[in-house]
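CORE FACILITY INTAKE
Project code: CF-77B
Contact: R.S. (postdoc)
Sample description: multi-component assembly, two entities in total
Requested service: structural model of the whole complex
Turnaround: standard
Below are the sequence entries exactly as provided by the requester. Do not edit them.
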Amino acid sequence: MEKAVVIAGMTKQYSNGRGIQNINLTINEGEIVGILGPNGAGKTTLLKCMTGLTSPDRGKVELFGVDLLGNYKEAIRPVGALIGPAVAYENMSPYKNLKMISRLYSAVSLSDIDEILSQTGLTPYKNEKMSSFSIGMKQRYGIASALISKPRLIILDEPTNGLDIDGLLLLRKTIQEIASNTGVTFVISSHHISELEKLCNRFCFLFNGQVSFYEAGSDSLEDVYVKKVEGLVT
Amino acid sequence: MNTIKANSFNEIQKLLTKKITKLVLFAAVLIPVLTKLLLNNLFIADWMALPTETINFTLLDLFITILLPLFIFIAATDLFTGEGERGTLIQVRPISRMELFLSKFAAIGTITLLVLLLEWLSVNISSAVFDKAFDFASIPSSLGVFIVSWFPLLVITAFAVMLALIVKTSVLAISSMIVLYLIMMFIPYVLPTTLYLLPSSYLDWYMQWLGNVSFRWLIQTATYLCSSFALFFSLGYYMFNRKEA
């Protein structure tokens, strides 16, 4: 099985002392990995380093065998990501925003844009300016923008933020459909343990900038998390 | 589609949705027509006292020293500082930093050239309609003048982009650009020796192409423009490459 993500000895330290230290992480193609950890543990930093949004101080990242720091463009081509709040050009419609993204990928057609808008429930608003969108609708757009390029690796940071119940169910259904139909790899960071438990088959705990893993098993994820926090499980 | 071409298209599309871009494009068409119309009606008896060329160059000066620098400052602020503030500057997309930087730069340069060409077209059409003394033989040379005027504006664009990447807020970016530009425009009156060192002094270098200026002087000016462009562009890219989301 091909390795989707290989992170070796990655360190990123901010001036406030927070960050991640010497992270080693391998994610195989087809896995759905949930990243859990308290606020400030370094989840977003890890994902930003994984996607080149932030340069690590040390270490290397490979995506499908391509070195991210050495060949960013090729390494990031099979990746779709939503990291932090969904961002877009607000004086444009979601359709125009997605059309702009699609120009950077040769394989994305205009019908793909319509399909992804329908998949994320944005078809009725496809020509509205995004400045009038609620946080939840922007988040739906953010998910659409991560999926539009039909990536082999999808990285989602707190994708359920701001989503209503419909949006949450739609997102869960979309991830499950994509994962079962196409074997796409997912890396999802969230505070919603129950949501991650439903979606993921492997979990990565991040505490004080260090990682440890847990394969989905008979124990409830919440119990495992609490034990991790209390330092009962190493 | 080539990545730089594709993203330049995106950046141009973004700029075209801005009111300032629409306003400058509109002004490029309307100001020459209104000026010619007004002068034709007001000074019909003394028309010979206002030669066509003088009016056309005054109109060009208005754009290259005021309206286009202002547009460049706003566009550079929006595409760099503004996007940094809104979180859209650096995204997870298959485009290298150099390609992204170049395409944003190309978008501002393309619209600047478009404004100049529109103004040239409007100046010539309105001259043909309203000026009795209009000489059709002057059309090719006037096109050359408008195109030549684009090069110093590219230096101003590189300067604006560099400043846009130094500061963190849009308000600070636009105000510092305007203040520095005004200083560059007025400092030669106080310190005349600085005249040849400031990029703003070369905005009207089209005059050198029209006048009886030596080839050596033209080469010197072109070398200065290329050097200052390379300096501002390199510094701008250096800072852009260090940006993190």
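Facility notes:
- Chain B touches chain A through 24 residues (CB under 8 Å).
- DSSP finds nine helices and no strands in chain B.
Invoice: internal transfer
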